[in-house]
Amino acid sequence: MNARLKAWGVAAMVLVLTLTAGVFGFDKAWAGMQRGRIQFLSQLLGEDARPVMRQFMIGRMKGHLELAEKLNLTPEQKEQIGRIIARHRQAVAPVIAEVIEKKEALSDLIWAETADEDAIRRASADLAGAVEKAAVVMAGLFQEGKTVLTPEQQAIYKAFRDSQKESSASLLGKLRQPPANP
After folding, report:
1. 143-158, pLDDT tens digit by residue?
2. Which of 121, 137, 149, 162 could be 153's S-S partner, Cβ–Cβ 3.0 to 4.6 Å?
3. Distance between CA 7 and CA 54 in Å, rounded?
4. 31-35, 39-43, 164-168 — which one is most confidently predicted on average?
5. Residues in Cβ contact with 104 at an 8 Å cutoff, skipping those fewer than 6 apart
6. Torsions phi, psi of 4, nearest 5?
7. Does pTM top 0.85 for this prediction?
8. Which H or E run contains 13?
9. Which residues are CB-neighbours of 108 under 8 A, at least 6 positions away?
10. Which residues of 96-111 are buried (b: 16+ CB within 10 A; e: fewer)?
11. Where are the beta strands (DSSP E) in 42-158?
């Protein structure tokens, strides 16, 4: 599996978990995971990466809250979206559970006493497969959910996504810079 495919797999996993965190009530656990990730990445990339990562993660969470407010969904829209989520819950929950299980299995191999590269590669491929399934299921949910939004609300959502992409590009640019204190 090439590096680009692995990067897309990780990005898709983060996207799926972020999008489902609030829907399925994982938001507090997700926030705790992000704090751990910030600490780990700051150790790996240098202490100057910590504020960049923290700002990025907080910005993402804050952005989702602001988006909900800006969309100004009507009670009817909220009800329709609730029904869509309820219809998809049985399809979404198992694929998200599989992503989490595969991620944990990979994490166990990474943190094992000795590194088994072949096992890590297999677990990475398993995780990528689980992320692929979850992305397809989530795409169906989001496509159906979009139909509830007015054209104006869809434009607000598109602007939100564009802003997230800019934020990600900015973070990547900062992370690619050599650390100030190696």
Report:
1. 998 999 999 999 999 9
2. 149
3. 20
4. 164-168
5. none
6. -65, -45
7. no
8. helix 3-24
9. none
10. bebbbebbebbeebee
11. none
